[in-house]
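User: Second chain of the day. Same drill as before.
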Amino acid sequence: MVKRKCRWMLRASMNLTHLHLALNHVPVLGTAFALALLVFGIWRKSNELKKTALCAFVVIAIMAVPAYLTGEPAEDGVEGLPGVSEAIIEQHAEAAGVAFASIGVLGVIALLGLLALRHGKAVPAWFAGLMVITSLTVSGLMAWTANIGGQIRHTEIRVGAAPSTAISKDRD
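Assistant: Same format as last time:
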């Protein structure tokens, strides 16, 4: 009975478009958070923090899978809505493919690093530097993809968007 009620509540309150919007924040914000944790660990010379950041990159890469896989159903859910641009959807899908591949690479590198550094081995400076550069790149790709995705329904952030009437009146 409880299981049936939970399924009904999920169906009633969340569809795949909603799920996509909720899940896509994990790789976008998580990558930036793990990068900050890694930099803090380097600054503090803490192997525990550096390894925690590597674990975070692996988890975030795994969490990116459902965010990416719900993208196509989310597209189906918004096509045809007023103000939705097919061109922006396609641009977002292409950016998402690049960002998804890059976070996958980041997650694999982090996992390989964790496997190589088990049993108390220290994180070498060259590997930490590689992870900083790679995660900076991935964070940028995630932010770029999220910005394009936001433009799908938020016409006000599109390039060349006209300011709203309320803002125009305040400036006069």
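The mean pLDDT is 87.

User: Great, on to the next one.
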